[in-house]
Specification:
This protein is 26% helix and 33% strand. It is built from 11 helices and 19 strands. Keywords: Acyltransferase, Transferase.
């Protein structure tokens, strides 16, 4: 067999790359309009190809993302379009592409990589782990939404989808600053990933609808993005994809709006944070139900020291972490974390050390808690981390805690 080589896919071969992707995913989403969209997305990615001679047998693309982390943001490789030819399975093609990605992350100064998985059993062995989780909510809209607080009474406005990024972009940016796990959205991202004319998964859905709330001429206090769908009897469902609000009263007004749309009997909201305010604001929890909890963004820490120093910590910390990492051996070893005050939080200085470890954990476990989702004490309790100094896990957990749970709804 010819040895495999990993190199950048030239622009002239991107159509071949899409053919491979559609082959692997059983021909799904290869209509002309979607193919054009996918081609444009690939053009904005770092596209890694696995070649056997001149034959393209593997594809892995990476968006150059900026991901919000506690107290700031870091460069992140957003992995997508992962495809291996069915004739070349179990030959190390994916492993080779991932290894090439790690080299490119190091060269580009990206301490993090992230993806949404199609098969959850694959990516753990490469060091990825869910770092945010989400709910799907279902709201009975056949009767008025009962709320425990009074909704904001400022006016609502329907905004054309093509104008929406300029109108609501600042509100999304403000939300990113408050919550880890959020992707920065430029005009390209808004158009291709958030507000495309057609929904890639369901042809029966309407074009995107965007409604804002706030005083005329002022920055919106909040917005909701949704699509609608009708059944054979003309009854409708509103699918909420994005809702941001500067206050609980604004959120209440937006939820009240989507549940009061004429002909809509049901509202479904995918990808809501686990600390979604509506679950507390609802006066009748039989009207608002959680139908699904799922792991959302899978994170990989590619550079341990840079990632740890790149976020703000909520409490002082001085301990030694031992990290195991078979995929990026340069990460493996012991790190001393010593914090210093930085505004309302703390920054840590990270140095390599030969001192005894207070806590040992794998690279997957580090990713699970990095954004503030899973606490170190839980990892110790279930046997996925080892505490050598009593109280070390609680100390790390306290320092990693965030006011709001991390949340991601931007699929890529």
């Amino acid at each position: 067999m010819t040895a495999l080589e990993y190199r950048t896919i030239p622009e002239a071969q991107l159509e071949r790359a899409l053919d491979l992707h559609y082959l692997v995913f059983l021909g799904k989403n290869c209509e002309d309009d979607l193919r054009k969209l996918h081609r444009e997305i690939l053009e904005h990615c770092d596209a890694i190809g696995a070649y056997e001679g001149d034959e393209l047998v593997g594809l892995l693309a990476a968006h150059p993302l900026s991901l919000s982390v506690p107290g700031g943001e870091l460069p992140c490789a957003g992995v997508t379009f992962v495809s291996v030819a069915p004739t070349h399975r179990r030959r190390g093609v994916l492993s080779g592409m991932i290894a090439e990605l790690w080299h490119r992350c190091a060269a580009a100064g990206q301490p993090l990589a992230a993806l949404w998985v199609s098969e959850t059993g694959i990516y753990g062995r490469f060091g990825f782990e869910p770092a945010t989780r989400a709910y799907t909510l279902k709201i009975d809209a056949e009767r008025p939404l009962e709320l425990r607080i009074e909704p904001d009474d400022r006016p609502l406005r329907l905004v054309p989808a093509e104008d929406a990024p300029a109108v609501i972009g600042s509100r999304h940016a403000a939300a990113r600053a408050e919550r880890a796990g959020r992707v920065a959205r430029d005009d390209f991202w808004w158009r291709t990933h958030i507000l495309p004319e057609a929904d890639e998964e369901d042809d029966d859905l309407s074009p995107p609808r965007v409604v804002t709330i706030g005083d005329t001429g002022a920055e919106p206090a909040g917005y909701v993005f949704y699509r609608t769908q009708t059944d054979d009897e003309g009854r409708g469902t509103a699918h909420v994809y994005d809702l941001e609000a500067e206050s609980p009263a604004v959120a209440a007004a937006l939820w009240r709006y989507v549940t009061s749309i004429d002909l809509v009997d049901t509202v479904k909201a995918w990808g809501r944070p686990l600390d979604e305010p509506l679950l507390r604001l609802s006066a009748d929890r039989d009207q608002v139900s959680v139908t699904q909890e799922f792991p959302a963004l899978w994170l990989r820490v590619v550079d341990v020291a840079a990632a740890l120093e790149g976020r703000v910590w909520s409490a002082p910390v001085d301990l030694v972490l031992e990290v195991t990492d078979a995929g990026v051996p340069a990460n493996a070893g012991r790190y001393r974390l010593v914090s210093a005050p930085d505004g309302d939080g703390h920054r840590v200085r990270v140095t390599r050390t030969g001192d005894a470890a207070d806590l040992t954990l794998g690279i997957r476990e580090l990713a699970a808690g990095y954004l503030g989702d899973i606490g170190a004490t839980e990892l110790v309790r279930v046997g996925l981390a080892a505490e050598h100094t009593p109280g070390a896990a609680a100390l790390l957990e306290s320092a990693a805690r965030t006011a709001l749970l991390p949340h991601t709804s931007d699929e890529f």
